Amino acid sequence: MADPTFEFAKPLPAELLYRRTDPKDLPFDLCSELPDAPVEIGQERAAEAVRFAMRMRAKGYNVYALGDAGTGRHELVAKLLHDQAGTEKAPSDWCYVNNFDDPQKPRCLSLPPGRGTGFAAAMKGVVEELRASLPTAFERDEFRARREVIDQQFKQRNEEAFGAVQQRAEAQNIVLLRTPTGLAMAPKQDGKVMEPEVFEALPEDQRKAIEHEIESIQGELATVMRQVPQWEREHRDAARELIRDTTGFVVGHLIEEVRARYADHSGVPEYLDAVERNIKENAEDFLPQQQHQASAPQPDGAQPPPGMAAAIEDARFRRYQVNVIVDNGGATGAPVVFEDNPNHQTLVGRAEHLARFGALVTDFNLLAPGALHRANGGYLVIEATKLLTGNYGWPSLKRALTAGEIRIESLEQMFSVATTVSLEPQPIPLKVKVVLLGPPQLYYLLSGQDEEFPELFKIAADFNDRVERSAEMTLLYARMIAGLVRREKLRCFDHGAVALIIERTARLAADADRLTTQKRAIIDLLHEADQLAADAGKEIVGAAEVQAAIEAQFRRGDRIYRRLQEEIARGTIRVETSGTEVGQVNGLAVMSLGSVGFGNPSRITAQVRLGRGEVIDIEREVALGGPLHSKGVLILSGFLGGRFGASRPLSLHASLVFEQNYGGVDGDSASGAELFALLSALAEAPIKQRFAVTGSVDQHGRIQAIGGANEKIEGFFDVCRLTGFSGEQGVIIPASNVKHLMLRHDVVEAAAAGKFAIYPIDTVDQGLELLTGIPAGEAGPDGNYPPGTLNHRIAARLDAFAEASAALMRQALAAATQPGPGS
Length: 823
Fold this sequence. Notes:
- The protein is built from 28 helices and 32 strands.
- The chain has a seven-stranded mixed sheet, sandwiched between helices.
- The two termini are 73 Å apart.
């Protein structure tokens, strides 16, 4: 197949088109014979960064694990964190309790792991015991006797005071009368109230004496009446003090039992003192419901509905509960928390609400923890993309890490737009290591745009997307596959299937000498091959099932690719695979649709004419060309100027276009093909259409590596198969891309049979010679090229353009200097 004219024009041998992994080199027959591989296979650098961050106790040494999705970031980070967490102590329990001085600001308590639930149960037991024992204490004879004494003292004082007034009145023949408006006084005669007519008939001096006595007694009565409220207060205080003393006697030993168990825990003794004081002040809450309602009758004799009564009773005792928001009683080490929905509330917690009689109410018992509470004292893992797109999750996390505390508050409170009174719980001290998992682009964006990010996430764990394909790594990959098969509970894979999977990882890495670290793709392939083996009734998965799974993956998403291939075969889309054309070459691009990528051949054409040294990119002119593609076209101008513009002006106008392209074009991988089309048009040398070309070019004419080499070659191969193999078709690629080739088996077989070929080139001249069959030619000492060579023809064409341009300039100058009529 090689063109005999040039020594370098030799197609690549089939063994360079696909690097096999020989199953015989794998030291096992079934993967079940292999142990699991280390989880950090190929990610030693990232694992070292995570371990270092876990050892650092200084502020800000959190981790951003950057790498592509599917590279095993989650699995590796989880293992490293769990291994480290297992060596650490379980952190404290955290509780919220009532602040009796200001219920809107609940207090937090820290207790040793597992003690929080015990403390909550102890306080619940205290309340239950008080609800049973206090009513009993108030029913005892001792309490009743003391209460009777207090009541009798008040009653006796009242009776003595009013009795003295009444005796004084009796001595003066004045009687005290009770009327609907209060006490009244009237004179009496013969033991009876004096009639008004009789009183009016009395002599004036006698009447005035009686009135004077009445006024005097009324003054004494008013003095007594003014003292009554004070006596009632003293009575209530005495009764309340009795209740407090009785309650204190009952509650004292109960609280003391709890205090003895938790005396060495900061904040607990003070809280228990506050509880004891509050119970003494509200002892009536522990009376039976009927008695409590009787002591506080409802207006008009109405009684609260049963539901409201139960709610009121529940609310009375909720203030003594303990809300354990973090319980580490069953923990064997530090917590490792994975938060899948990181937003403001799921990170810092929230105050929930209850619907009560048409209103929403809350208290400290309704404080719910967030991921930071659960991870406090340990490790928190979050997907960075979800964090930044969550509802204020990123600002809330930064605020907590910067302040070193967790503050439960609503978004309205955080932004100071709340118009209602809400809870303001005491912040909880925060000590946590946060690991963000995200793409590299997001890490670099945050590093450059967020001033706080470098201070809070000082460690970058950079995950590799591929590793070197060595014999040692191949065996490690075989062990990794064996471990995945066991973990996913799949059928056993034989050594041929494992070898093919390893080859597939090289193809996914787009490099014969590298293996991808995309575990997700490997796991999907294992599952699909396992299902095909199950469909065939096999207990062992072989290479045939793996190959079928690979082909099925592409077939499920290749509808557009097949449609394009079909239209090329029908001639709707023109792609020539035979004959020759001047200024036309087959270029190759890669299209990606979902998880499927494929090569798409297209014609690139060039036209040249006399001009001012411009190379016009039609794609750019109509806004279909991206910046990288436009850069490639501008490089062509640099190449032409460097090679042919030193001794002559470039008086040409060239236009380049991707024919039948109706979408965007970007990337510089077609710049080599565009240059070949341009030089063919300048030299008027036909290009063999049996070739397709890919590769970028620099200003010195060197062909450079491009991406998607495998897909591009396979795309043109499929076109040639549809139009018919002539035995001469092939693809020209950069020599630096040879190491990336992992072509389909049918392409390799066709190359081995001489039906198809891949040619590597290093320079533009080599490509020109292959495409045209004409020597490119090298410049001599005088800068001229040998006659008959392509470069000589190009130089001659450019000279002709320059001469024509000069002639036109002379004609224009002569016309401008020629005297006009009447001069």
